[in-house]
Write a structure and sequence with these properties.
Shape of chain C: globular
Distance between the termini of chain C: 54 Å
Helix content of chain B: 10-25%
Structural class of chain B: mainly beta
CATH architecture of the largest domain in chain C: Orthogonal Bundle
Number of domains of chain C: 2
Oligomer: heterotrimer
Number of helices of chain B: 2
Chains: A mainly alpha, B mainly beta, C mainly alpha
CATH superfamily of the largest domain in chain C: Winged helix-like DNA-binding domain superfamily/Winged helix DNA-binding domain
Structural class of chain C: mainly alpha
Order of helices and strands of chain C: HHHHHHHHH
Strand content of chain B: over 45%
Radius of gyration of chain C: 19 Å
Number of strands of chain B: 10
């Protein structure tokens, strides 16, 4: 019985085990594996070995303290990005995946998308400036709003102790 | 290329003209409001407090208090309200707490929160069915109050 | 103001939603939850503690700035570990280990010497302690070349598909397939040797 397999066949079996083949190719490889004992043995061993690796990823502890790590991160993030820039980056991400990078088309979508997003955002009025939400600023009320997606809750926290 | 640009311009104009949140054109919405008290005391000494339904308790777990109770005043029983467009309904939750809810269309409500007859907050919020608007704040002795307005199906 | 939320009970999705609104306490909770896994992924790839710490910190800062781009298509953990992996791949590209790479490149393209030999795969044994097995895997990973280790980690631990790995590494799918094949065979061979040296049974 043949002890070695064609390298191309081995790659195909690997791809089949990794669920990378389309239906037609998958059926062809499955038939090959079932009709060839070496291929079958190779496939089973590879599957077992992959499972062994996947289930036993080495674990590590972050070597510096949480307080030191957080201090380093907080130093950099203390000045949050303006909302306009946040939207700009998310638009770029969408463009990268969907459109041919044509300069005129990209500019039209960014300008139009910025306008639409500002007018029709899902969380419209989720975050307001305090002056829009507080009926009486002179009461010294501070407000924090956010949306909790898992709970489907729009939360407005009224802080009367801010001052 | 020319077709793509034309298509994009069309999409922009369409988007500018049509308000995407006006899909249903609903004239009224059904809401229910509750006043809830958050505390770390398991059995508070107050007869007007009753445990919350499980689904609401689960939602409030994101806050730091261990227990949540509905404040039930027999003079102001909680009820479901059908609010028609551009009409404001007043819901009294307790002697000290009242809200006025107005449906302004596009699934959006405007809520005015009154504490001891004083206007504290005005909030506009688009609210889909099953979602909740929570107005909350800290109370004395490290407890908290929550006004929970849910849109019913 | 931000001390009324029970951050440890909040889900990742809620924490992300709060962090998007500028709540740094929520973001800190995310850091606490995921820092070890993120560091682990970086260290596995780079095999250098200092570099892994730097990359992990950079990934958190990048994640903060890009929170608006997190659309919930995957879990937050998967999303941020992808950021770490991309940073690691960039770092590895800049490192000069060409000589080793080119020798292994020739080997991997021809399928390696191993392709002519019978496959020896370690068999898992119920008796083996998980920590011992992980230690062997860790030692074997350290002996792979950067590109083989990267492909293996991206596929086996991160669960990335061939085309995603190809895009991250700037190579073809065919190259990914060959590298992965070679990396697995090399790992198996290294683990067997380590197993014999330490008298373990898999």
């Amino acid at each position: 019985m043949k002890k070695t397999m064609n390298f191309k066949d081995q790659l195909k079996i690997q791809a089949w085990i990794d669920n990378e083949l389309d239906e037609k190719e998958s059926l062809a490889v499955k038939a090959m594996v079932e009709s060839n004992s070496d291929a079958k043995k190779f496939a089973e061993s590879l599957r077992k070995f992959n499972s062994l690796l996947t289930k036993n990823e080495p674990e590590y502890k972050f070597p510096i303290s949480q307080s030191e790590l957080w201090a380093n991160i907080k130093k950099e993030i203390n000045h949050p990005q303006p909302r306009v820039l946040q939207f700009y980056y998310s638009s770029l991400h969408w463009l990268e995946s969907k459109l041919i990078p044509v300069a005129i088309a990209a500019s039209l979508v960014i300008i139009g998308g910025a306008y639409l997003a500002l007018k029709f955002t899902h969380n419209k009025s989720t975050v307001h400036l305090a002056s829009e939400e507080s009926a009486a600023l002179n009461l010294g009320i501070n407000v924090l709003s956010f949306y909790a997606p898992k709970q489907e809750m729009y939360v407005v926290w009224v802080d009367t102790n801010a001052y | 290329m020319k077709n793509l640009v034309c298509l994009l311009i069309y999409v922009l104009i369409f988007g500018l003209v049509v308000n995407p949140t006006n899909a249903s054109g609903v004239d009224s919405i059904k809401v229910k409001a509750l006043l809830v008290w958050g505390t770390d005391t398991e059995v508070p000494n107050a007869p007007n407090l009753k445990p919350l339904p499980k689904d609401l308790s689960e939602k409030l777990k994101m806050f730091k208090w261990k227990y949540y109770f509905q404040v039930c005043d027999p003079d102001y029983p909680s009820k479901e309200l059908l609010i028609t467009k551009d009409k404001a309904e007043t819901i009294t939750l307790s002697k000290k707490c009242e809200i006025q809810v107005k449906y302004i269309g596009d699934s959006t409500i405007e809520v005015k929160l009154f504490g001891e007859k004083k206007l504290v907050l005005i909030k506009k919020q688009a609210l889909q069915e099953g979602a909740h608007l929570v107005l909350a704040g800290e109370d004395k002795n490290d407890t908290a109050w929550f006004v929970i307005i849910g849109r019913l199906k | 103001m931000q001390n009324w939320v029970n951050y440890s009970e909040a889900s990742d999705e809620d924490l992300v939603a709060m962090a998007r609104e500028g709540n740094t306490n929520a973001f800190e909770e995310l850091v606490v939850r995921h820092k070890d896994k993120l560091y682990g992924r970086a260290f596995s790839m780079l095999r250098n503690e200092e570099e892994a710490i730097d990359v992990t910190q950079d990934a958190w800062i990048k994640a903060w700035k890009r929170l608006a781009q997190f659309h919930g298509d995957s879990s937050f953990s998967t999303w941020i570990t992808r950021i770490v992996i991309n940073l690691c791949v960039d770092k590895l590209r800049k490192q000069k280990r060409e000589q080793t790479e080119s020798i292994e490149k020739i080997e991997e393209e021809s399928g390696g010497v191993e392709r002519f030999m019978e496959v020896i795969w370690p068999n898992p044994s119920e008796g083996l302690e998980k920590t011992e097995l992980r230690s062997v895997i860790d030692k074997a990973l350290a002996q792979l070349s950067n590109s083989h280790r990267a492909v293996l980690i991206m596929h086996e631990f991160q669960g990335m598909q061939y085309k995603e790995i190809a895009k991250a590494m700037g190579c073809s799918i065919g190259t990914v397939m060959s590298r992965l094949f070679y990396a697995r065979r090399k790992m198996a061979s290294l683990m067997s040797k380590l197993n014999n040296e330490e008298n373990h049974e898999f």
